[in-house]
Write a structure and sequence with these properties.
Structural class: mainly alpha
Strand content: under 5%
Number of helices: 6
Largest sheet: none
Number of strands: 0
Amino acid sequence: MRGNPDNLRRSAQAKHAAATARAEQGLRQMIRQGDPITFRSLAKTAGVSLDFLYRHPEFRRRVEQLRDQQRTALPPSPDKPDPDQPSSVIRTLTSQLTDLKRRHREETTQLRQALEAAHGEVIDLRRRLGPHTVAPPREQQPTTPGSPARQEAT
């Protein structure tokens, strides 16, 4: 038999210990960062195989337990942004401003059209009346009861 079986065993044990340490470190890192914990994400973060995680009962139990805890702690849904985030506030205000500008343009357009129609009616009425002279305004006299100006009008 060739080679030294003891060296192979020690090498395999060192490799196993290194993978175990990487898996532990990866799990702690994911918990600290609040990343979703799954077998695939842990394998990727720790640089170990899925088979390694599934074959080791302590990792399997911890991943399943942490995964279940994360599922029950309902995270905020991604389609509802946090209203306190500046980007959300900016988006909301920008949307409101855009809506106000649109309504202002529509109202201005309607008022201009109404003004043009009124000008057109004024021109039509002036044409119907024909040329007319503007009489100087009459001086108004007091219109108290019993005054001569009032009696003349009656």
